[in-house]
Structures are given as structure tokens and as C-alpha cells.
Design a protein that fits this description.
With 150 residues, this protein is α+β, with helices and mostly antiparallel strands. The chain contains 6 helices and 8 strands; from the N terminus they run βαααβαββββαββα.
Length: 150
């Protein structure tokens, strides 16, 4: 029996407040460091972390996002939705991506560095900040838009 292990990247996507976007647009590493510190915060500091988080990020309207993504992709043969998980299984482009929408963040697990979901969510809002804490990778979604010419 052959077992295939696919290395998935895990991206956390945050809806950054407009004023914070302007403040950190030219210095995203500082914003990443703040979010990284919150991500790795100890349990006893959770209340402080939450208070800091709500100062820099807006909550998501999960129902709106789930519906918008579904409407945009539901006719695509490579797309499926199970509960609040949006799935792209595109064998032609060798992409497997799963997007979960929570109230404070979206979580995208993908075998690719660039997922089709990035284009979809960028079309919905350009104030998203994407972090892969394991790989220490981060970017504003609108910067990816310019680089990838999507």
C-alpha cells in the first residue's frame, strides 16, 4: 500500500481595520509580529490578546462570506462546500485547498503557496492580511493581487 502525504500550508486570514492597514501598509512585518505574538500567547494572557486583537482587526460576517464564496464557485466542478468548509480539489492544477470561515479569522489549508481562494477573497475585501505562522510568511491580500496579476 502506498500512502501519499501532502504537505499543507496553513494560512490565517485576518480582516484588518482600515486605519491599521494604512499604518502598516509599508511595514507589514510589524503587523505580522503583533499577530504572531497573539497567536503564541499563553492561556493566562488570552484576555489581553483578545483586547489587542479587536483593536487591529474586524470580525467577519461569516454568513455573508460563506454565501458569497458559494455563489461565486458553486458551478465550478472543482469546488464543493460541506457545512462551513469550502473545498477546491483541482487535479488539473494540482491544488487541494480548504477554507474555513470563523468569526475572527479565516483558515486556509492548501498544498499550494497560491490558492484560488486568495483571488476570491481579495475580490470581496482588500483589507485581508494573510499569515502562515509556521513558515513565517505574511502578506496583504491586495499585494498578492498586484504581484500575481490576478
Amino acid at each position: 500500500m502506498i500512502v501519499l502525504v501532502i504537505e499543507m500550508r496553513k494560512y490565517y486570514i485576518f480582516n484588518i481595520k482600515e486605519s491599521i492597514m494604512k499604518l502598516y501598509q509599508n511595514n507589514p512585518v510589524s503587523l505580522y509580529k503583533i499577530l504572531e505574538n497573539i497567536y503564541y500567547m499563553k492561556d493566562e494572557d488570552i484576555e489581553y490578546g483578545y483586547n489587542l486583537f479587536i483593536q487591529i482587526a474586524n470580525m467577519f460576517d461569516a454568513k455573508y462570506l460563506n454565501n458569497s464564496i458559494y455563489i461565486k464557485l458553486h458551478k465550478d466542478i472543482t469546488y464543493s462546500k460541506i457545512n462551513n468548509e469550502h473545498i477546491i480539489n483541482d487535479l488539473y492544477h494540482d491544488e487541494i485547498s480548504i477554507l474555513k470561515i470563523k468569526s475572527s479569522r479565516m483558515i486556509l489549508e492548501s498544498n499550494k503557496s497560491y490558492s484560488l481562494f486568495f483571488k476570491i477573497i481579495n475580490d470581496l475585501n482588500e483589507n485581508y492580511f494573510v499569515c502562515d505562522f509556521k513558515e513565517k510568511d505574511f502578506f496583504f491580500i491586495n499585494d498578492l493581487h498586484a504581484v500575481m496579476k490576478i
